[in-house]
Amino acid sequence: MKKLNLLYIIFCFGITTISAQIQQENFNGNSLPSGWSVTPPASGCNWQFGYTGDLKGSGFTNPASFTSGGIIFDDDACGPDFNNHIELEGPTVDLVASNVTSAAIEIVFNHQTFANVGKFFVEVWNGSTWQNVLTVAGDTPPSNTGTNETINIDVTTHINSAFKVKFIYDDENDLTWGIGIDDYKLLNTATASIDDLIDLGFNYYPNPIVNDVLTLHANENISIINVYNVIGQKVVATKPVALESKINMQNLPVGVYIVHVAIGRKEGSFKIIKQ
C-alpha cells in the first residue's frame, strides 16, 4: 500500500521575514482532531488516528510508515463486502479576512492498491461548491521504497471566506489496501514582489516549478541570495557578486520555497515550487 501524505502550508513573506502557516494538523493524536469531522462508510469502518505502524501494501521488505503518527483507512481490514467511501473534513478558515491572496496545500500521502483499485481525492470548498484539486489512482509512491509521496497544490483560485479541505477515499467497491495521510498544512504563499529589481534587469528561471537548478540573472551584480523553506528556515545562503547565479536545489525536499535577492541596495523576493 502506498501512503499519501497531504501537507498544506501557507507563507506570508516580507523583505526580511517569513510568517507561519495558516492551518496545520499532524494527526499525531489517537482521536479525531478538534474541528475535524468524518463521514464514515456503511461498513462501519473508520479512520485510524495516530497510526505509527507499517502501512499495509507499502512493501514487505521496506514498508513505509508515519514516524510520529498519522491517519490511515485500512480497507484490507474492512473487506470487500461494502463500497467503502469515507471522508475527512477540516475546519473552516476565513482566508479573505486574513488578507490571503495566494495559498497552497502541501500533503504527504501513501496510496496502495490491488490491481489499481481504489482512489484518493482532495477537495476544497470554494465558497459554494466542493472543487477537486487532486485525484490519485494507482500505487503512489511505489511499494518497497520506504517513503511517502509529498505534493504541493496551489489553491489560490479557491480562496474564500469559508475555505476548508476534505480528504476522500473510495475503494471502488472492491478489496484493496487503503490510504495513509500525515501532516497537513495550509499556507499563505504570497510573497514580496521583485518590482524593485526589474529596472536592474533581474529575471529567474524556471518559474515557478524547479526540478534541479534555479538560475538568476541581472544587469548588475547579484550580491545576496537566501532561500527559505515554509517554516522560515534558511536552507540556502550565498553571496555570488555576479551577474548570474545558479542555485542547486536537487537535494532540497519537495515543496514551496521563498527566494530573497539583494542587488546593491534593492531587494525582492519570489516563490518557487520544488518538485
Write the layout of secondary structure elements.
Layout lengths: L2 E4 L5 E2 L4 E2 L3 E3 L11 E3 L8 E4 L18 E5 H4 L6 E5 L13 E10 L6 E7 L4 E8 L11 E6 L10 E6 L7 E11 L6 H4 L4 E3 L3 E2 L2 E10 L1 E5 L5 E5 L3 E7 L6 E9 L2 E9 L1
Parallel strand pairs: 16-22
Antiparallel strand pairs: 1-9, 2-3, 4-14, 5-8, 6-7, 7-14, 8-13, 9-12, 9-14, 10-11, 10-13, 15-17, 17-20, 18-19, 18-21, 21-22
Short description:
The chain is an all-beta fold. Helix content is 3%, strand content 46%.
Indicate the CATH class of the largest domain. Answer: Mainly Beta
Low-pLDDT residue intervals, each spanning 5 or more residues: 1-20
Structural class: mainly beta
> In angstroms, what separates the terminal alpha carbons?
23 Å
Tell me what portion of residues adopts beta-strand conformation: over 45%
Count of separate DSSP helical elements:
2
User: Which geometry do the CA atoms define?
Assistant: elongated
Residues in helices, as a percent range: under 10%
CATH topology of the largest domain: Jelly Rolls
Instruction: List SSEs in N-to-C order.
Output: EEEEEEEHEEEEEEEHEEEEEEEE
Averaged pLDDT: 88
Report the C-alpha radius of gyration, rounded. Answer: 20 Å
Please provide the count of β strands.
Answer: 22
CATH architecture of the largest domain: Sandwich
Number of domains: 2
Largest sheet: 7 strands, antiparallel
What does the model show?
This protein is mainly beta and 275 residues long. It has 2 helices and 22 strands. 3% of the residues lie in helices and 46% in strands. Strands 1, 4, 6, 7, 9, 12 and 14 form a 7-stranded antiparallel sheet that branches. The two termini are 23 Å apart. It folds into 2 domains: 3-188, Jelly Rolls (Sandwich); 195-274, Immunoglobulin-like. The protein has helices spanning 75-78, 195-198, and strands at residues 3-6, 12-13, 18-19, 23-25, 37-39, 48-51, 70-74, 85-89, 103-112, 119-125, 130-137, 149-154, 165-170, 178-188, 203-205, 209-210, 213-222, 224-228, 234-238, 242-248, 255-263, 266-274.
